[in-house]
Design brief:
The chain is built from 11 helices and 13 strands. The strands form 3 sheets. Strands 7-6-3-4-5-11 form a 6-stranded mixed β-sheet. A 5-stranded antiparallel β-sheet has the order 8-9-2-1-10, sandwiched between helices. Strands 12-13 form a two-stranded antiparallel ribbon. By secondary structure, it is α+β, with helices and mostly antiparallel strands. The chain binds zinc ion. Residues 252, 254, 285, 287-288, 290 line the site of zinc ion (ZN).
Length: 300
């Protein structure tokens, strides 16, 4: 296999063993454009979804199983957005944002997280089918931005001191988004049981300061390889390890046969009510905006 290029559409694992820190760094370019192309969202929603997809990639890259799935969901009320869903499977990302255009138009150009979402929750679900591990953490959606909300997710739901940075920028008409996730796991390597996670461990503030010094335009610079950026941040450490890179892309898993089988399970009178004026049942995929036309005769 050719080596994965560490510029865009890739996630890279990072470990700083002497500081008991590990993390992921990711950058998305064509993946974000491909996801956004099927939606036609206003710029403020595009930026938010670009950051959310990057966060989803960072979290998805933490999954131990290749078939594992990660879902990020914000469910809220009272804001311009009432639902945002992103997910990750085998490096494939997808997402959508359900929003109210009228409410959005009333917001300032750079709205706060609270103005966008109102009041609600952020749910993150790690699903690892082989070991049958399913873990969902839910925290209030709080903070100045999505990165802060993710940080409080780790602090509250997993009790892991964490740093999350996200940035998204449109460069020459194309989106580039980048993110960094660092975590303190004092009992050593990834996968081992954590015995003494302490928020005041002296190693952690050091890592958090170095990691926190990353600039948004470094995260979104498509010409700066991710391993170079990690080196720039942590070159004074005793040892910095990078783990195998994961290639990222856009992928939707909607399937006309599956949609048909779901509709076929509805009672006949309910199916009847779904038939449109054109004589077919139309089902749209919220993630990729594909529209499936199902002939009622196919379901009989
Ligand atoms: Zn789809």
């Amino acid at each position: 296999m050719p080596p994965v290029q560490l510029y865009t559409d890739v996630a890279l694992g990072v470990a700083i063993p002497s500081r008991n820190a590990r993390g992921r760094i990711a950058r998305l370019a064509s993946t974000v454009d491909a996801v956004l192309a099927s939606h036609g969202y206003p710029p403020v929603i595009e930026r938010l979804l670009a950051e959310a997809l990057t966060l989803t990639a960072l979290l998805g890259a933490l999954l131990k199983e290749p078939e594992g799935q990660l879902t990020l969901q914000a469910q809220t009320e009272g804001g311009a957005i009432d639902l945002m869903v992103c997910d990750y499977l085998r490096g494939e990302l997808r997402g959508y944002v359900r929003h109210d255009l009228e409410k959005l138009a009333e917001l300032p150009a750079e709205p706060t997280l609270q103005q966008l979402f109102g009041k609600g929750f952020l749910a993150i679900t790690f699903d690892q089918p082989v070991s049958e591990e399913r873990y969902q953490g839910i925290v209030p959606l709080e903070g100045r931005n999505l990165a802060e909300a993710a940080q409080s997710y780790f602090a509250q739901s997993e009790q892991i001191p964490s740093l999350v940075r996200l940035a998204a920028e449109k460069r020459d008409g194309h989106w580039v988004a980048g993110g960094l996730l660092l975590q303190h796991l004092p009992e050593g390597e990834e996968g081992r049981e954590r015995l003494h996670t302490r928020l005041d461990h002296p190693d952690w503030p050091h890592v958090a300061i170095l990691g926190g010094s990353v600039k948004p335009d470094e995260l979104t610079d498509p010409e700066l390889p991710l391993d170079d950026l990690i080196w720039r941040l942590f070159h004074e450490e005793e040892e910095v390890r990078t783990l195998p890179a994961i290639a990222l892309g856009r992928g939707c898993r909607c399937d006309p046969d599956y949609v048909r089988s779901v509709i076929a399970r509805f009672p006949a009178d309910e199916r009847e009510a779904m038939i449109g004026d054109d004589g077919v049942i139309r089902v749209d995929c919220a993630f990729c905006s594909s529209s499936f036309a199902i002939q009622p005769s196919e379901l009989a």
